[in-house]
Amino acid sequence: MKTPTKAEELAAVRALAVQLGPDSYLGPWLAQRHAELTHLVRSDLFPTMDLAQAAREAAAVRSMARRDADDIMATARDQATQILAEAEHQAAHKISLANRQAADIRREITEPAGRAVRALQNLLA
Question: Which residues have a Cβ under 8 Å from the Cβ of 30 and sit 6 or more positions away?
Answer without folding.
Answer: 13, 14, 16, 17, 20
